[in-house]
Design a protein that fits this description.
By secondary structure, chain A is mainly alpha-helical. Chain A is built from 16 helices and three strands. Chain A has three domains: 45 residues; 103 residues, no CATH class; 218 residues, MetI-like fold (Orthogonal Bundle), CATH 1.10.3720.10. By secondary structure, chain C is an all-alpha fold. Chain C folds into two domains: 119 residues; 235 residues, MetI-like (MetI-like fold), CATH 1.10.3720.10. Classes of the chains: A mainly alpha, B alpha/beta, C mainly alpha.
Chain lengths: 388, 297, 417
């Protein structure tokens, strides 16, 4: 006679405790992993948030003969050290372009110097005592304040932290991504279609398949070496250009697109192909009219994920020289350019601590774009996913 | 060899007397119908292994079992038959609470074993499964050696303390499952290296090694060739000496060959439950008759 | 006339020719068909064939010409090249038109071309790998002509900066460049080890919880979130490591009276581990999820508790897949660049103390290739030698991992891995 339930249950007590312990440990691993990432994101938000604000000062700017020659003379001497040099520099040009301004005095909010900005944000105090006094007075009068930082989104890199922005990096990213997708989307989809729908099952096909999987695992920096050795020194593509960066990233993104496109094609059941063959379609017609249309959402999802990956990539671009100092964006694909992650990298290595918040601010913008892209991909997949 | 045949013969003798007895009782019982439990008289009550009353089961909104009541007798083979989707496997899984693994399942009714309600809050399903073993449709040996496949659970249950005990237990289980002679020289090869029929017997050995009261078999031969099927059917016949066996089969000949009792399920209802001979010779219900004679299935 | 206008004109001419080819052959095919003859293909298919015949050879010729122009430095005036292409396009048009006859399988011809195009696209991936391999090997060989291979493999001092001095003729006694890569690999190994010590337990634990214990809704939310987090760029983790974790490590080490460098190996290792957690958990999740349920049921039906089942049945069954995921993660950690460039040191340092600063292979590659060295210098070329070793190591890890996942797949006949 076997044991009764009571006897067995008594024996099981210890084992159930151990079982529960394992459940809690694994849950702990999940929660801790999530916690790491929450800490990480909130750290970036805390560091990066101030970058979206910028100290501005309301001053009277006199546009006259003297300030045309010596822009610093346009404002009062005591507030002069508080104002960004980035404001003074373009003044003469501004007056030339707009003669109506000449010999007027205007009260306007201008960008404050980075030291003022940091002081108002409570970060560090590098102002001279006299300047600090002036500033305190201005603050009391409501003529100095932290305002939304539009400069950050409209300018390129600068040696003055208060004038540095992500615009040229963003434009560089867009150009580079255009090159990348223009190259790797057609090639990737074509390769996947060939391997999935046309290729005979022979040695060559197997080699291509193994090769694509290996390519996906090659460290990204090696693609940079390839770009440097092949594109730049062999083909003479201009260094630092979106063209060379885009081509380098295209090779890196290619396996991602191929693999996801193949998965999308494979999820189309054979019955659809058989039905189309049955009504007399040729192989290409089957692919074009029946297989590709239904697998398009999957292909797009994979491409967006590949795009997001390429957008965040930095290492190969450093190697092909895309960490340039680019104050003004250029729309040429062969001109020197930089991309957002490379801009973040550049700022992160600036010794001036005012750039730390720019770094984190740039990260927040980049993350927002990437999370948007990834969420778009997930949404696309969930909306159009078909269960056969 | 002769010994076993003789024994075999005797068990068959035993079981046939048992079923005749049951048939006798049926003659004065009201016509078995849905909701009307079939029981043997008081004198054999002690042989009762599982008592099921008004068992209903829902998968989400869909009701898969309707008020099933049945008595399963100890040391017999009970076969559950019926067309696919009739709820026979679902019912089987209620007996060792394997349905717990599906989160959308809701169960009402009584499944009583050894005086305990199996579905009661205080019932430990792990303890229940130790007393109610199970063999599945497709052989599922663990990715371990043949020896480990059998020894694993008893060791976890502290049933053996010494290595020699463990060896003995493995040998006994494999012998009982009729597999010993085939594997005794390769105990440390992976269980998956065996043929399908051997794997299924390994799974039976694995179940016996825990020494349960009941062994549930969910279409144990449907994935096997005819020769392996015959071996397993013989095995079931031998095993009922020590265990109560409940088996699901979609093969009526198999039910007729191995089972002492047969329950016919249809669309979540239990239509008829009777001694196998009675069921096949003279079914009480039209549906059972139609199914047995092959009108549908 | 500027170059871009010439190109524009060329493209317009080609488009017009294509359009003419389409219209003419379509009209001709329709006429032939209307005259009652049965044709092998539709008029549109003849038309498309004519377009292909017009544009295909012309584009091919101009591409080849451009290639020769750029690469071999051949002296072909661009104008001649483009004119030649246009002439070929016209010839192609005539040929295409002449093929509009009932016996011609226009559809089959088009499909043959498409098929070849697709196959050519597939070959590009091979070319890429060959390109990586050849370019790296080529430069690495040039490096080993300058420097001894033996010293590279066994040397314990990495001091490439001096090569600049010596090439400038300013080498002072005893300060010759040294390219002993052992300290770099030691640094890579140390940081990878730290990363794995973080990533494997956490990633695997999270995966086990999600597959075996989590209610469905937890799994459904956690999985996409983890996928999104796996897409965070490495430069962001680099900033996190350098700005937040490294000072933290120094402070904590200070509490124990230990002296840690601000570019210690621990900070990038830990952050890299965090970065790899989603990678491991998502791969292991797939693997554990594809362990057949019948094994779980088989174990539970024996009266085994859930965690015993996970530990003794599910994890061993998934082991090849989990090991494969871990190998991929190791390969990824070794090739990871941004975190170490930003947070690890620049000083090659052969030490077992993770609180000291160490440098890695990838950092040295970046260091060798940024700044304005000439391409031919030993320092620049050393990057390719390091890259070659990195390529071989990661490729080996990847091949082994593919082999293991294939074994797993064959064992349980799962196709979604």
């Amino acid at each position: 006679m076997s044991q009764s339930f009571e006897e067995i249950s008594a024996q099981l007590k210890k084992r159930h405790r151990r079982s529960a312990r394992m459940k809690w440990m694994t849950l702990g691993a999940l929660i801790l992993s999530a916690a790491f990432l929450v800490v990480f994101i909130s750290d970036m938000v805390v560091r990066g948030w101030p970058a979206f604000q910028q100290a501005q000062i309301q001053v009277e700017v006199s546009y006259d003969e003297q300030s045309q020659k010596l822009p610093l003379a346009a404002v009062d001497e005591d507030v002069r050290p508080l104002i960004s040099r980035g404001f003074f520099r373009p003044l003469p040009r501004k007056m030339e372009d707009n003669p109506a301004l000449m010999d007027t005095t205007q009260t306007q909010w201008v960008i404050a110097d980075s030291r003022v900005d940091q002081y108002l944000k409570g970060n560090e105090d590098r102002l001279r005592p006299a300047d600090k006094e002036t500033l305190e007075n201005l603050v009391e009068e409501g003529r100095a304040d932290l305002k939304f930082n539009t400069t950050f989104f409209t300018t390129g890199d600068s040696k003055m932290p208060e004038m540095a922005g992500i615009a040229s990096a963003a434009i560089g990213t867009v150009m580079t991504m255009l090159v990348t997708m223009a190259v790797c989307f057609p090639i990737g989809v074509m390769t996947a279609v060939y391997l999935e729908e046309f290729a005979p099952d022979n040695k060559l096909t197997q080699i291509i398949e193994i090769n694509i999987n290996n390519l996906a695992a090659v460290p990204s920096i090696l693609f940079g070496l390839l770009g440097l050795a092949v594109y730049i020194s062999f083909f003479g593509v201009p260094r630092s250009s979106p063209l060379v960066g885009g081509l380098t990233l295209a090779l890196m993104t290619l396996p991602v697109i191929i693999i996801s496109t193949r998965a999308a094609l494979r999820s189309v059941p054979d019955s659809i192909r058989h039905a189309a063959f049955g009504v007399g379609c040729s192989r290409w017609q089957v692919v074009r009219d029946h297989v590709l249309p239904v697998s398009l959402p999957g292909i797009l999802t994979g491409s967006i994920i590949g795009l997001a990956q390429a957008m965040g990539e930095t290492a190969p671009l450093i190697i092909v020289g895309m960490v340039a100092f680019i104050p003004d964006a250029s729309l040429s694909i062969t001109g020197a350019s930089t991309v957002m992650p490379a801009q973040i990298f550049t700022w992160a290595s600036e010794p001036n601590s005012a750039f730390a918040e720019k770094t984190a601010g740039g990260i927040l913008v980049l993350l927002a774009v990437l999370i948007f892209l990834n969420a778009l991909a997930v949404w696309l997949r969930n909306k159009f996913e078909r269960r056969w | 060899m002769n010994d076993t045949t003789l024994q075999n013969f005797q068990t068959q003798q035993d079981s046939s007397t048992a079923s005749e007895e049951a048939v006798r009782h049926y003659s004065d019982a009201p016509t078995p119908d849905k909701g009307q439990p079939v029981t043997r008289n008081e004198s054999v009550e002690e042989n009762l292994s599982v008592r099921v009353r008004d068992l209903s089961l829902w998968y989400g909104e869909h009701q898969a079992l309707n008020d099933i009541s049945i008595d399963i007798f100890a040391n017999t083979v009970t076969a559950l038959i019926g067309p696919s989707g009739c709820g026979k496997s679902t019912f089987l899984r209620c007996l060792n609470r394997m349905n717990d693994l599906i989160s959308s399942v809701r169960i009402k009714g009584l499944v009583e074993m050894d005086g305990h309600d199996v579905n009661a809050r205080g019932m430990d399903e792990v303890a229940l499964r130790r007393r109610v073993g199970m063999v599945f449709q497709k052989p599922n040996p663990f990715p371990k050696s043949i020896y480990e496949n059998v020894a694993y659970a008893p060791r976890m249950h502290d049933m053996v303390s010494r290595k020699t005990d463990q060896d003995e237990l493995v040998e006994r289980a494999l012998r009982d499952a009729g597999l010993w002679n085939e594997v005794k020289d390769k105990l440390h090869e992976p269980g998956t290296s065996l043929s399908g029929g051997q794997q299924q017997r390994l799974c039976i050995a694995r179940a016996i090694a825990v020494q349960p009261d009941i062994i549930l078999m969910d279409e144990p031969t449907s994935a096997l060739d005819p020769i392996s099927t015959a071996t397993i059917e013989d095995l079931m016949d031998k095993l009922k000496k020590d265990f109560t066996i409940v088996t699901v089969t979609h093969n009526m000949q198999q039910a007729a060959r191995v089972a002492d009792y047969t329950a016919f399920f249809h669309l979540g209802d239990m239509i008829e439950y009777n001694a196998t001979k009675q069921m096949f010779a003279n079914p009480h219900t039209k549906k059972a008759e139609d199914y047995i004679t092959g009108r549908y299935g | 006339m500027s170059m871009s206008i010439v190109f524009l004109l060329f493209c317009i001419a080609l488009l017009v020719l294509g359009g003419v080819a389409f219209a003419l052959s379509r009209a001709k095919a329709t006429r032939v068909r209307a005259s009652g003859m049965t044709m092998h293909a539709q008029p549109d298919q003849y038309a498309w064939f004519a377009v292909l015949a017009t544009a295909g050879p012309a584009l091919l010729v101009s591409a080849l010409g451009a290639f020769a122009l750029l690469l071999m430095g051949a002296e072909i005036p661009v104008l001649y090249l483009l004119t030649a292409s246009l002439i070929i396009a016209v010839i192609g048009l005539a040929m295409g038109l002449s093929q509009v006859r009932p016996a011609f399988h226009a559809r089959r011809a088009i499909e043959g071309v498409i098929r070849k195009l697709l196959a050519a696209a597939a070959l590009i991936s091979i070319l890429t790998t060959l390109g990586i391999l050849l370019s790296i090997i080529n430069e690495a060989l040039r490096f080993f002509q300058m420097q001894s291979f033996w010293d590279f493999v066994t040397g314990t001092t990495w001091n490439p900066g001096a090569s600049f001095l010596s090439s400038a003729g300013r080498a002072e006694g005893g300060s010759a460049a040294q390219f002993g890569s052992i300290p770099l690999f030691a640094g890579t190994f140390m940081i990878t080890l730290i990363a794995m010590l973080v990533a494997i337990p956490f990633g695997l634990g999270a995966a086990i919880y999600m597959v075996e214990f989590a209610p469905l809704y937890v799994r459904k939310t956690a999985k996409p979130v983890i996928e999104v987090l796996a897409g965070i760029p490495t430069v962001v983790y680099g900033v996190f490591a350098a700005l937040t974790v490294a000072p933290l490590v120094v402070d904590i080490a200070g509490l124990f009276g230990l002296d840690a460098s601000y570019s210690n190996a621990l900070a990038p290792g830990l952050v890299m581990g965090i970065m790899i957690i989603p990678f491991i958990s998502s791969l292991s999740d797939d693997v554990i999820n594809s362990v057949p349920n019948s094994l779980r049921e088989g174990a539970l039906a024996l009266g085994i508790t859930k965690s015993e089942m996970v530990r003794n049945v599910v994890v061993p069954a998934a082991a090849p897949g989990i090991i494969s995921a871990s190998l991929l993660a190791v390969s990824r950690a070794m090739g990871e660049t941004m975190i170490v460039v930003m947070a690890a040191g620049m000083r090659p340092n052969l030490t077992a103390n993770p609180l000291e600063d160490m440098t890695t292979v990838t950092v040295s590659i970046v260091a060798a290739l940024t700044g304005d060295q000439e391409f031919e210098s030993a320092q620049t070329l050393s990057a390719f030698a390091l890259g070659l070793v990195l390529f071989i190591v990661t490729l080996t890890l990847n091949v082994v991992s593919v082999f293991m996942i294939r074994r797993f797949r064959e064992k349980y006949r799962v196709n979604n891995l």
